[in-house]
Amino acid sequence: FLSLGLHEFDVLKSAEVNDFRWKMRVLCEEVAREREKKSWQEKVLYQFPMRLESSKELPPMISKKLRDNNLVILVRFENTENSFTFCVHHLTTPRELLQQVLAKKAHTTGQQEERVEDYALKICGQEEYLLGEYPLSQFKYMRGMLSKDMIPQLVTVSITSILVEADDPYVNIESLETKRMKSGTLTSRRRPKTSCSWSVEEQFSFRVNAVQKLNCDQVEVGVQAGLFHGGEALCEPQKTKEKLAIDGEVQWEEDLQFDIEMCDVARMTRLCLVIYEMSKNAKGTRTRKYKGGKQDLYINPLAWVNTTVYDFKNQLKMGSITLYMWTYAEDLQAEDLLHPLGTVVSNPNVENATALTITFHKYHCENLVMYPSIEKVLEYAAKDASQESSSAPTAIPHASKMYLEQVRQICARDPLHQMHEQDKELLWYLRHDCRYHLPHSLPKLLSCVKWNEHKDIAQMLSILKRWPQLPPENALELLDYAYADQYVRKYSVECLRALSDEDLLLYLLQLVQALKHESYLYCDLVEFLLRRALHNQTIGHYLFWHLRSEMHVPSVSVRFGLILEAYCRGSIEHMKSLQRQMEAINKLKSINESIKHKKEPRERIKLAMHDTLLRNHNMDVLSNLQNPLDPSVRCKQLKVRKCKFMDSKMKPLWLVFDNNDMYGENIYFIFKIGDDLRQDMLTLQMIRIMDKLWKDEGLDLRMNPYSCISLDKRMGLIQVVLHSDTIANIQKDKGLFTATSTFKKGSLLAWLKDHNPDEKSLNKAIEEFTLSCAGYCVTTYVLGIADRHSDNIMVKTNGQLFHIDFGHILGHFKEKFGIRRERCPFVLTHDFVHVITKGQKQQCQEFNRFQQYCEQAFQILRRKGSFILSLFAMMLSTGIPELTSVKDLDYLRETLVLDLSEQEALKHFRSKFDEALRNSWKTSVNWARRERWYRRELFVDLLFTEMTAATGDLPFFGSSFEGKSFSLAHDPGKKRGLCSEMTKTLSTATISAALGCALPAGFNFSVLNVPQSILQDFCNTTISAKLDRPLTHKELELIWSSIVAIFLFGGMIGAGVAGWICNLMGRRRSLLFNQLFGLGAAVLFLGSKSADSIEMIFLGRILAGFYSGFTFGAVPVYLTEISPLPLRGALGVIQQLGLNFGILVAQVLGLKIFLGTEEYWNYLLGFFAIPIILFSILLYFCPESPKYLYIIKEDHAAALNGVTLL
C-alpha cells in the first residue's frame, strides 16, 4: 500500500526514524482526540470540506451577473424527480435557503413542514455540503456557476444519509516509546556532559578512511569535500591525494582540514563529498581540467554523497560512518563536482553502491559537542549587541531616504539576480530598517548573512524573532533550497499557517517538494502539512498521492514513507478509501499492460478489454471509490460499454463511471502509463495560480486548467474535457479535409455557429473565446510552452479555448537541423483573430479589447514575477527533465523582463504581440506541414484498424483527450471487419508487385555476370568491324565498364522521379507506366544481336536502370499503403524477396546449359519481359492505394472502396 513495508522502518534501526515516528504518533494522537470532541457538523466538514472564497464581497465580474443581487438556484430532493427553482438574495445563508425549500415542499405536497436541522444542502454531483452561516455567494461552487452563466443545482438530503466515518481510537504510543528509548543514544539513559560548539575554535576536519565497490580499476582516484550551507560554500573545498584503485578499493587514512573554525560551522551545514578519477579523456559536462603538474589529465567524477555535520539532536557527529554513494547517472541535476543540492540520505542500495568510510574527529575528550539552542543563540546576540554599542541596533529607523530608496531598488530585483558585495553590505547594515520599512526584503537579507560566522548568524536569528509576519505567498520562497537554516524555515511555516485550505491545495505541490530540502526527517513543515491534512480530508487526499507517486525515488522513499505512515495511522477510515483507490489503480495497470502488447485488430482487443472489465472481481474493485482526480466526486460503477483504449503507442484507457449521485453527470478520465505527468501537473498548477492572480485583480480570463495527477512512476490520470474538440479536427471538418484547411480562417467561427445557433449564445461563445485566448496567449508565452500544434489546442462548444499536452516548457522548443520549428512568441492565427473580430477587419474594437486583455494579464504576472520564479525554483528537486537547474529559470526572467521598467516591459510585450500576429502564417504553415505528414503516415493505419462490421465511423487520432471521430460515407453492403489474414486481392497485388516489378529489377542487377566473356567478344567483334581494327584491352575494358555502370545512371534518374510520378499518376498506374520502360529495354536487348548494335545494349541498360530505380522507389510505397498494420512487416520484405529471386533466376539462366551461350545470350538479357507482361495483367486489376486516393486525390469514397477490396 505504501510501497514500503512498515516493518522496513523497524529494520532500519535508526534512532532518527524511531524519534520521528514517536513524534508523529504523539501528533496524530492529539489530532485524533480533538476529532473525537468535534460536533457532527465539524466531522462532516473534515470529511467533506467546503470550498469557500476568502471574502464575502463579490468581485465586479461576478456581481454584474446577478439579477438585482439575487441568485437563481435549482434545488432537487433526494431520491425524487421533484425540483424547485428559487430566486434568493446572494447573501442568503444555506439555512435560510433550506427553510424556503422545506416550506415550498410542504406547501406543494400538503404535508407538515419538516425541521431544518434534519436536512442539508448538497452540491449536485459532488460530495460537498453547504453548511454554516456563510452567504451562498461565498461558496466557490456558486461563483463558478455564476461565472459560466449557469444555474447552480443543489440537492436537499437528510442528514441521516450523510455517512460520517468514525475513526478508530488512535493506537497507544507506549510500544513506540519503548523502541525510541532502546534505539536512542546515551542521552536516553543518562545525560552526559556537553560543550557548546561555539566555544570550539579548532578548525573543522575529518578523516577519509577508505572506499569500496568503486566501478573502476587500475585508475587513480581521489576524494574532494566541501562544506555548504544551502547552495553557498562556507570555505574552500579540500581533496585527498590521488591513489590507485585496485579491485574497486582504495585506502587513504588522510585528514582533510578546512579553513573554517568549528564555532563558525552553521547548524545546517552539509559535508559534500565526491570521488573522482584522473583520466586522459574528458567524460561528460562535469569533467574539470586538472590544474596540477599533469596538464593532460582530467578530473571525472564517479560518485557523490552528502551528510550533515550535526545529527538530528543538535549533536556534532563523531566517530566512523560509512556513506553509500550515488552515481551521477542516477542524478540529472548536478553539473559541478560537488552536489550541495542533493539529498543527505545515503543510497539505500547498500549491496551495489560505492561505500565511502569517513571519521569525524572528537573536539572534546569527555564532553559531547552540541550546537547551541535558540535561547543561547539569542542570549549571545543580546550580549554581543551590548558590547558593540557603537553599532548596536536601535528601535528607531536611522537610514536616510536616499539609502532606503536604494534598498527598495535592491529588493525589487528578482530572486535570481546576483547581488554585488556592496549591496549585501548595505542591506546587512540597514537590516533593522528593512525589518521596519521593508519586511518583504527578508529573502534578500538572508542572502547577505555570512553563514560561516556565528556572530552574523546570532544577529540574524535575533532580528528574525521580531520580524513581522510575511504574506504566505512571500513566505513560500523561504522554503527553497537556498534557505537551509531551520529557524528561517520555521518562520516561513508560521507565516503559512494563515493560508486557507484552498490556497494550501494550490501550493501543495511545491510544499511537498520543499520536504526534499529538509536536512532531517522531523521539521516544522512536516508537522504543518500533517496537521492540515488531518483536519481536511481533501488536503490529506492530495498529500497522499503527491507523496505516494514518488515512493519509487530511493532518496525520498524513507522520508515520504514515514509521512504516509503517520497520515494513514492518523486517519484510519480515510486510509481504507485510499487503499481502495490503490487497488483500482493496480487493476487498471494490469488491464492496460495486457492490451498494450496485443497485435490483434482493434475491435478484438476492445472486446477483450470489455470482457476483462466485466468480470465480477474487476467490477467490485472498480466501483464505489473516490475519484483520485477530485475526491469530492465518487465513482459508483464502471460503464464498460463506453470504455475504450486510445490510439497512441501506450494505449491509454478511456474510462467512464456512473456518478454516485443520481443527479450528477458521468465521470470521465484517462488512465495513462508510460508518460511522466509531473511536468503537466506543474504547468497546469501554474495556470491555476496565474488564473487566481488575474481574478484577484478583477480579470477573469475563463481559463480551463483540467485536472491531472501523477499516481506512480510514469503513471497517472487525466481529466477528460467534454464537449470539446481540437483545432485540427475543427479545421478538417470545416475545411473539407483539404491541404489548405489550416489557412482557412472561417472554419473555427463556423464551428462555433453550429454549436451556438442563436445570436446571444454565439456572442457569449465569442466572448468566452476572446477571454480564454488572451489568457492562454500570455500563459504559453510566459511559461515558454512549446509544441503548440493544432492537436494540442482545443475549444469547447461554449467557446472556451484551452491548451493540452505540456511536454515542453520553459523555452525547450523542438528543433530540426538546429532550426526552431516554432518561432512565434505564442499562437495567434488568423482563424483565432477571425473569431475575436466576429469576421470583421482586424483593427476593430473587439480586437483592441483582446489586446488590452493580453497586456493587462501580462502586467499582472510581471508584478508577481518574483513569486512565479520562486514557485519554479522550489520544483528543481523533482527531477523533471526540463526543470533541472537554475539556468532553466532564466527563460522566465527573459519573458517577464523583470529588469525593465513597467513602461519598457509593456512596450516589449507589445512588440511580441505584433510579432505573433505578423508571423501567424508561419504557425499555419507548420500546422499544415504537420497535418500533411500526420495524415500520410497514419491514415492507412486508421482505415485498417478502425473499420468494424458494426459502424462506419473512423476515429481520427487528433487529440489524446477526446478521441474524436468523423464518418466516411460508404456502401453499407461493403462493410467488413479488419482481417489480419491475406485476402485474395491483397495477395494478388503483392505477388504482382513483387514478381512483376522487383523480380525483373533483380534480374537486371546480375544478368551480365555469367555471360560476361561472351558479351565482351560481341562488343569486340561489332566495334572492330566498324573501326577496321581490333580493340585494345583497355578500350574493351572501358566499353564493358560503361555498359555495366550506365545501369546505375538510369537507376538514379528512375529513383529520383519515382515519388513525383507516383503522386502524379497514382501508385498502381505509375507501376504500370514503369513496365513500359522494362519492356522497351527487353526489346532492345533482344534485337541487339541481329542488328549487331552495341548502342542498343547501351540504351537498353539505361532503360533497365531507370526501370529498376523506379521500382525501388514505388513498390515499397504501394505495398506499405495497401497492407494492414498486422501484415505490414511481413509484406514490407516482399520486394527484397522478389529482388533476390530475380538475381537467382539470372544466375541460373546464365549457365551454358540454358541461355548463357553465343546463340541465346540476347534471349537471356530480354527474358525479364515475360514476368513483366504476365504480372502487369494482374496488376492492372489490383486496387489503387487507399492513402493516395484519400490524401492526394481526396476521393474518400474510392479510398474506402479500395480498403474494402483489400
From TrEMBL:
Enzyme Commission code(s) on record: 2.7.1.137
Ranges annotated as spanning the membrane: 1038-1060, 1072-1091, 1097-1119, 1131-1154, 1160-1182
Any one Pfam family match given in the protein's UniProt record, by short name: PI3_PI4_kinase
UniProt cross-references to Gene3D superfamilies, sorted A to Z: 3.10.20.770, C2 domain (2.60.40.150), MFS general substrate transporter like domains (1.20.1250.20), Phosphatidylinositol 3-/4-kinase, catalytic domain (1.10.1070.11), Phosphatidylinositol 3-kinase Catalytic Subunit, Chain A, domain 4 (3.30.1010.10), Phosphatidylinositol 3-kinase, accessory domain (PIK) (1.25.40.70)
Reactions catalysed, as given in the entry: a 1,2-diacyl-sn-glycero-3-phospho-(1D-myo-inositol) + ATP = a 1,2-diacyl-sn-glycero-3-phospho-(1D-myo-inositol-3-phosphate) + ADP + H(+)
Gene Ontology BP, a term: phosphatidylinositol 3-kinase/protein kinase B signal transduction
Top-rank lineage group of the source organism: Eukaryota
Compartmental location: Membrane
Keyword Membrane: yes
Location of the Major facilitator superfamily (MFS) profile domain: 990-1206
UniProt xrefs under InterPro entries: ARM-type_fold, C2_domain_sf, Kinase-like_dom_sf, MFS_dom, MFS_sugar_transport-like, MFS_trans_sf, PI3/4_kinase, PI3/4_kinase_cat_dom
Residues annotated as domain PIK helical: 393-570
Entry keyword Transmembrane: yes
Domain PI3K-RBD: residue ranges: 68-158
Coiled coil: none
GO cellular component, one term: plasma membrane
All residue ranges annotated as the C2 PI3K-type domain in the record: 200-361
GO molecular function: 1-phosphatidylinositol-3-kinase activity; 1-phosphatidylinositol-4-phosphate 3-kinase activity; ATP binding; transmembrane transporter activity
PANTHER family linked: PHOSPHATIDYLINOSITOL KINASE (PTHR10048), PI-3 KINASE (PTHR10048:SF118)
Similarity comment text for this entry: Belongs to the PI3/PI4-kinase family.
Full protein name: phosphatidylinositol 3-kinase
Species for this entry: Strigamia maritima
